[in-house]
Amino acid sequence: MTFPVTITSARPVDPWDDPVVTLLGDAVHTMSPGRGDGAGIALRDAHLLGDLLTSDLTVAEAKTAYEHQMLDYGFAAVEASRNRPFGFFGKSARPGSPDGRARRRPDDRRSVVVTLTDEGRMLLPKIPPVFGQTAALLTAGISPDELQTTHRALLRMRENLASGRR
């Protein structure tokens, strides 16, 4: 079984001008989940930001120092994940290979074709229940109206980012 997976990575950005608002993790440097780097980089962001905010620096100085360091190592990790999205899982597979590896699609550099192993195919039926349980946990106690409002706000934010509005 082979299926295309489109993986979109963040593009490098410069530090921003807001004196007290910053970003960390996937909010600023989204990367392929295949390497397992994203969570670790987000934790590194949080640790660095916490250290700087509890130092002798002002909030603005801590934020500036954080962004300069985070943007360097964060986008280095993004670049590594873009170049080898499944970098720790062996060499690229031949097209149609049943060995559970990944290869880039020649027609779309941001897409990867993943070939599942037999063990991977056996795990496929277990994925939807996990997503369902996670969704139920995340939305517990939130009304359908609140979820709809949140959904609309997130869509508007995505549109704003796509159009470059400030």
Automatic annotation (TrEMBL):
According to the entry, every stretch annotated as the FAD-binding domain falls at: 11-71
InterPro entries attached to this UniProt entry: FAD-bd (IPR002938), FAD/NAD-bd_sf (IPR036188), WH-like_DNA-bd_sf (IPR036388), WH_DNA-bd_sf (IPR036390)
Q: Which residues form a coiled coil?
A: none
Which Pfam families does the record cross-reference, listed alphabetically?
A: FAD_binding_3
The organism's superkingdom is given as Bacteria
| Disordered: annotated segments | 88-109
- Which SUPFAM superfamilies is this protein grouped with? FAD/NAD(P)-binding domain, Winged helix' DNA-binding domain
* Record keywords, A-Z: FAD, Flavoprotein, Monooxygenase, Oxidoreductase
- What are the protein's GO molecular function terms? FAD binding; monooxygenase activity
Question: Know the name of this protein?
Answer: FAD-binding domain-containing protein
